Amino acid sequence: MLEQCNILLKKYFGFDEFRKGQEAAVNSVLNKKDAFVIMPTGGGKSLCYQIPALVQEGITLVISPLIALMKDQVDSLNSVGIPSTFINSTLSSNEIDERLYQAYLGEYRLLYVSPERLESHGFCSRLLGMHVSMIAVDEAHCVSQWGHDFRLSYRQIPDFINKLPQRPVVMALTATATEQVKEDIINLLGLNNPELVITGFDRKNLKFAVVNGVEKKDYIKKYVNENKGSAGIIYAATRKETESIYKLLAHEGVRVGMYHAGLRDEERSRIQEAFIYDDIDIMVATNAFGMGIDKSNVRYVIHHNMPKNMEAYYQEAGRAGRDGEDSECILLFSPGDVQTQKYFIDEADIPQERKALEYQKLQRMVDYCHVSTCLRKFILEYFGERVEEENCGNCSVCCDDRELQDITIEAQKIISCVYRAKERFGKTIIIDVLKGSKNKKIFENKLDQISTYGIMASSDRDFINLITNKLCADGYLRVTEEHYPVLKLTQKSIDVLKNNEKIYMKVEKVKSHVNVDNELFNLLKNLRKDISTKVGLPPYIILHDSTLKEIASKLPESTEALKKIKGFGEKKVDLYGEKVVDLVLNYMAEKGITSKSDSETTSINEKKSRGQTKEEKIKSYMVTYNLYTQGLSLKEIAEERGLSIATVEGHIFQCFEEGLKINLDDLIPKEFEDLILNVIKEFGKVEKLKPIKEALPEEVGYTSIKAVLYKYKYAG
Ligand code: ADP
Ligand code: ZN
CB count, 10 Å around CB of 260? Predict the structure, then answer.
């Protein structure tokens, strides 16, 4: 049976093998055993029930809370040749009748329904007459009050199951898995001794980054410009923020949309659609956006504000890179965000004990923004996974290669201030004391009389605040769970005071996401967009980014070769195969790329994966140089070629070094010319460019520095 499933996996979805966990889940269903599947977003939950649905007799019922997602999934399934449909409130009663009738006739393998449907008697009685072989409960955490999207109608599910003449096998699926939610799901859904399928929560293709102490709007503007053409989501805490970021970006001329709960329904679906269909690149939104967005080619998620807890953060950030391609999740932190979230908790209509829990979760979120250990490790351990590895190599902490600063002295001052103030005060007061503030509260509490009063008077308030946050995040201090949290000592604080432990810190800095420029990839994207417009399905449902990238690197020259590409099942080869192959062949002819025999393919792929060959690079430089000699400005060349200006400068400089004629002034920004020259002079002997670069404003690139060196004959 499992073997048959493997064949179907290839035939319909074009995948060679099941992922970790999928096989176990499928097997469980085949053995008529309930299953509880916990996988992170993008882990591949859908296939766990879609494949069994193909081999079992009868119909598979999928309960899903998200109307938009339902349609997406059904479109996806039909596009690969698996007949399926959905029933929800967007349909008229005639349409519902028709679909139920077709289902009764056995026309569908899968039927998606919203949980609210199960409350309708008419609906249930129609289902009783069908052979339901399996029920998949998607987003199963909705059954739990402790989850983040509690849905009362999920509680109806076990009743409904019990009414069926024969109990189908039940599979629950979720990406949330705190202990409490896990127990709730098993108990409240009445799972019968389920097979537990829990894969790791790690999303290796996501790079996590926390950015502290930047001008957020500038950062976003810069990032968006550097990543033009990639899809991204920018989350903000409030409507007002959302609007202001939206305006900022619209002004920059990027393709951007806005989404928040204050917009009319039609407006919201219009803009959501535009995003899904790649008609806009960027969505600026509050957390109202995202439920039910299955767009898989989102390349980055930036949080303009810190969310309320790690669950929310991981879910929102997790909307990046569902297709498995490298993507970035960046959180821009500022202390004000903590106040906003506290305000939301205070205003929420929930019992006091629940508020305490929310404060506690918020504190962990703040900790995430300040830890000096691996962010991935922090996240995974938060969700209860054990992580041995200290350095993931793909987060802003692990990738931060600047020197550590010894901050032991500062830490000792802060910790000892907490101690001397008898662990009775919060951060603001402690900082006041350290700064030697003349605040009324200080005198009222006689804090001006303790020995740490004013011992950091010459330090910046923000700096003390940052270190204090770090100390909390790393466990050198503890924060109580109240509206006005109090700082307390821990065992680790004692070690620092006793001078047994040194503390180091780095100040965050994040490199921007690097775009892969790939002509063929872009051509394929255009083709996909054409097909999408014609057939009325979102581009990522037609073909995934990863599939296009693989095509661009493997250059399949026949539909047969196309079948070997991940994501190209039989139906897709039939539908789009010829167009894609035509495009590849034309491209190869135009570029003079000769055909490769099978044995060569691998070595070429290897070369490609390591980047362009030397020859290809020079070819690319020459294209840039030709445009340059035609008198185009650097900006125009950048647009024409879809490269960043810095890359264009780099190309031209390479040509210069190869002996071609250029005007060095074109590469030197006027406003920085004197400054660059002065810095070079200051260094006297130029051995390495890095220190020079670091002494200059960020927007000055290496190329400009090199151009100045040549112009003033410091080099060559
Ligand atoms: P989830 O529902 O867990 O968020 P999906 O079911 O949407 O995840 O799958 C995420 C992505 O992974 C999809 O793009 C899907 O096509 C891809 N995928 C799933 N299973 C496999 C597999 N066995 N091999 C390759 N890609 C897969
Ligand atoms: Zn890391």
Answer: 20
- Looking at residue 11, what DSSP letter applies? I
Claim to verify: residue 354 and residue 448 sit in the same structural domain:
no
**Residues 420-459: tens digit of each pLDDT:** 999 999 999 999 999 999 888 999 999 999 999 999 988 8
How many percent of the chain have pLDDT more than 90?
Answer: 47
The CA distance from 164 to 193, in Å, is 19
- Tell me the best of 5, 22, 45, 46 to mutate to test the pocket of ligand 1, counting ligand atoms within 8 Å of each CB and taking the most: 46
Up-side HSE of residue 55: CA atoms within 13 Å toward CB? 20
Tokens 């691996």 locate to 374
Sheet of strand 35-38: strand arrangement: 84-87, 110-113, 59-63, 132-137, 169-174, 35-38, 195-198
Q: Are residues 448 and 477 in the same domain?
A: yes
Rounded to the nearest whole angstrom, what is the distance from the C-alpha of residue 18 to the centroid of ligand 1?
A: 10
554 lines ligand 1 (CB under 6 A): no
Nearest ligand to the CA of 379 is 2
The strand pair at 195-198 and 84-87 is best described as: unpaired
DSSP symbol at 9? I
**CB of 296 closer than 6 A to ligand 1?**
yes
114-118: average pLDDT? 91
Residues 235 and 289 in one domain: yes
Largest CA distance in the chain: 88
- Residue 345: which region, alpha, beta or left (left: phi > 0; alpha: psi -120 to 50)? alpha
CB 93 within 8 A of CB 99: no
Question: How do residues 680-692 score in pLDDT, each as one tens digit?
Answer: 888 777 777 888 8
Q: Is 8 in the pocket of ligand 1 (CB under 6 A)?
A: no
Taking Cα atoms as reference points, which of 260, 268, 345, 263 lies closest to residue 304? 260
Long-range Cβ contact pairs of 29-32 (< 8 A, separation 24 or more): 29/56, 29/134, 29/169, 29/171, 30/1, 30/2, 30/5, 30/55, 32/169
pTM of the model as a whole: 0.61
Q: What is the DSSP letter of 395?
A: B
pLDDT at res. 510: 30
Residue with the smallest CA separation from ligand 1 atom 17 is: 44
For the residues 127-136, what does the mean pLDDT come to?
93
- pLDDT of amino acid 222: 92
Residue labelled with tokens 């003079």: 592
Specify the CATH number for the domain of residue 76. Answer: 3.40.50.300
Report pLDDT digits (tens) over 385-407. Answer: 888 889 999 999 999 877 778 88
- Work out the mean pLDDT of the chain and round it to a whole number: 87
Give 516's pLDDT tier (boundaries 50, 70, 90).
very low
For residue 294, which atom of ligand 1 is closest to its CA?
7
What separation in angstroms does the CA of 234 have from each of 305, 316, 372? 10, 10, 25
State which ligand 1 atom lies nearest to the alpha carbon of 13.
16
How far, in Å, CA of 470 to CA of 2, rounded? Answer: 50
Looking at residue 509, its pLDDT comes to 31
When pLDDT is averaged across residues 44-50 and rounded to a whole number, the result is 95
**The predicted structure's pLDDT at residue 613:** 62
Number of domains into which the chain is organized? 5
User: Of the bound ligands, which one is closest to the alpha carbon of residue 396?
Assistant: 2
Closest atom of ligand 1 to 45 CA is: 3
The mean pLDDT of 617-623, rounded to a whole number, is 79
Closest ligand relative to 392 C-alpha:
2
- 393 in a structural domain: no
Claim to verify: residue 167 and residue 216 sit in the same structural domain = no
Express each pLDDT in 555-583 by its tens digit: 888 888 898 888 898 888 988 998 999 88
- Domain ranges, residue 487: 405-505
Ligand nearest to the CA of 391: 2
Residues 553 and 593 in one domain: yes
Verify whether ligand 1 is closer than 6 Å to residue 18 (CB atom): yes
- Residue 708 has, within 13 A of its CA and on its CB side, a CA count of 23
Confidence at 52, pLDDT banded by 50, 70, 90? very high
The number of the ligand 1 atom at minimal distance from the alpha carbon of 18 is 23
52 lines ligand 1 (CB under 6 A): no
